[in-house]
Amino acid sequence: MFDSVWTEITSFFTPERFQTLVVVVVVIVVGMAAIKILNTIAGRVTRRNVSQQYKMLIRKGIRYTGSVILLFIVLHLLGVKITALLGAAGIVGIAIGFGAFVLRLVRLGRALQPSDGEPSQPSQDDGSTGRE
Questions:
Q1: Cys-Cys with 50: which of 25, 33, 54, 126 at CB 3.0–4.6 Å?
Q2: pLDDT value at residue 121
Q3: Where are the chain's structural domains?
Q4: Tell me, what's the pLDDT at 17?
Q5: Residue 74's CB: how many other CB atoms inside 10 A?
Q6: What is residue 116's three-state secondary structure?
Q7: pTM tops 0.70, yes or no
């Protein structure tokens, strides 16, 4: 029984598959190191001029974007067709961008409200009657 399992394992790991596995491991290690270096550089550049919230946002953005790019590279190296995944990622990116835009509008107090078709004019109530 052990011999048959060992034979299956050795027949699965052909030299081509082993080479692909080594390339994937190297790409993952180099990609993770690049993400870490970019985070370090971003931390040094934003040390004094940016608030803590923006620093965290920049670092997370670098980490998540780099990780997704690294995932797509690894899947491509493993032979997975990623065209549909890239299309879905684009749609998700557009949805997140639209959601963030609407959330920002709501948080700033300028939520979209139904109107009667006329553009609204900002009120300028400074106490004057408009007469000179």
A1: 54
A2: 56
A3: 2-80, 82-111
A4: 84
A5: 17
A6: coil
A7: no
Ramachandran sector of residue 78 (left: φ over 0; alpha: ψ -120 to 50; beta: rest): alpha
> How far is Cα 54 from Cα 105, in angstroms, rounded to an integer?
19
Asked if residue 42 lies in contact with residue 69, where contact means CB atoms within 8 angstroms, the answer is no
Q: What tokens does 69 get?
A: 């790019």
Confidence of residue 132 (pLDDT cuts 50, 70, 90): very low
DSSP state of 60: H
What does the alpha-carbon distance between residue 65 and residue 3 come to, in Å, rounded to a whole number?
Answer: 45
Interatomic CA distance for residues 29 and 23, integer angstroms: 10
Instruction: Tell me how far apart the alpha carbons of residues 124 and 104 are, in angstroms, rounded to a whole number.
Output: 24
Residue 111 has pLDDT above 80, yes or no: no
